[in-house]
Amino acid sequence: MASVMLLASSIALAAPTRDIVIAQVAPQTGVQASSGKAYTAGLRLGFTAANANGGINGVPVRLVTVDDAYKPEETVRLAKELLVKESPVAFAATVGTANADALIKAGVLTESGVPLVGPSSGAGSVIGQPGIYSTKASYADEVNQLFSTLNSMGLSRVAVLYQDDGYGRDLLNSANALAPKYKIELVARSPYDRITGNVEKPINDLLKVDTQVIFLAAISAPAANFIKGYKQRGGTAMLIGPSPVDIAYLQKNLSKEQLRGYVASTVGPIETRTSLPIIRDYLKLKAANPSPDYGIRSLEGYVTARVIVAGLQRGKATPDGLQQGLKSIRALDLGGVSVDYSDLKRGGSNYVDFVTIDRSGSIVR
């Protein structure tokens, strides 16, 4: 921990003078590359807009992104390197519960005083921890809304495919806890390994189960492989995934017929909701700043950037100043998405919605 303590003192002596650095440690390669790149693209949009309006009191915001390939040990190592090389005022948009957990357990955030804003994880082990400022709903919020919706549809038999790590188990634990409230019977729970992502056994196991719905507490690549294999072998249950499953990845890697009927939880409005000011602003910025990396997670990155800018405008451009600014945020309306830090033990937002993939491969609400 001594090295991290030294980093904290060096940051205090190296307050930004030429620009304000936001550091992102997130996968740009590997199984979650599509999510990491989408978050990066969204963050860049938000900071580009802020800089076009004069930055923070005339000082531009600079995003520095490094690739951890979704490996928790790399997340920690690279975060420590960035603290020395770049003196960031914040980390933003990590991807993966295990990755955020690793930063927390290594003491990187508490020892340096540099907050993490907008981690992709909505897990209970992440939300509410010191230095964490979530910008979206928790996984428990997602499962609660899902089970409420299933109950209203008369669907009660649910199987769970889950990644065998903190992320997947957090979703599974939420399902276990909330099922009785909504008269949901969890008829099967089938894990897969986080490292290999192999879903062959869960496919075989869940094909044998009498279930109406399979909840995919998975990440993008294993979820795609499960959907493909399950449907090719005649599986007919409704398939529903939480927000970490990247719809853009599924659309690129599955046929329209394989993806038809898939239901996704979202923690922000979809792009077709142009009645919302945040969507209109977001689409205008996307058109002016083309990128192959945009995906459904990009709006989450954009929201995170907007929240960081709001925090910087309320406080000083230092890690502590940013945290003070963030803590003062109450019902910040970004134009259809609201963020509130009156209770840091909850997610910064409770927005949860669902979308479906239709026969043309398009997203419909």
Would you write up a description of this structure?
It is a single chain. The chain is α/β, with parallel strands linked by helices and about 375 residues long. It has two domains: about 1-135 and about 275-340, Rossmann fold; about 140-265, Rossmann fold, CATH 3.40.50. Helices cover about 45% and strands about 15% of the residues. The protein contains 14 helices and 14 strands. Strands 7-6-8-9-10-13-14 form a seven-stranded mixed beta sheet, sandwiched between helices. Strand 8, helix 9 and strand 9 (about 240) form a beta-alpha-beta unit. Helix 2 packs across helix 13 and helix 3 (about 70-85) packs across helix 4. The N and C termini lie far apart (about 50 Å).
Offer a concise description of the structure.
It contains 14 helices and 14 strands.
Give the topology, please:
Elements: H1 2-13, E1 20-25, H2 33-52, E2 61-66, H3 72-86, E3 90-92, H4 97-105, H5 108-112, E4 116-117, E5 132-133, H6 139-153, E6 157-163, H7 166-178, E7 185-192, H8 200-207, E8 213-217, H9 220-232, E9 238-241, H10 247-253, H11 256-259, E10 263-266, H12 277-288, H13 298-314, H14 319-327, E11 332-333, E12 338-339, E13 353-357, E14 363-364
Parallel strand pairs: 1-2, 1-3, 3-4, 4-5, 6-7, 6-8, 8-9, 9-10
Antiparallel strand pairs: 10-13, 11-12, 13-14
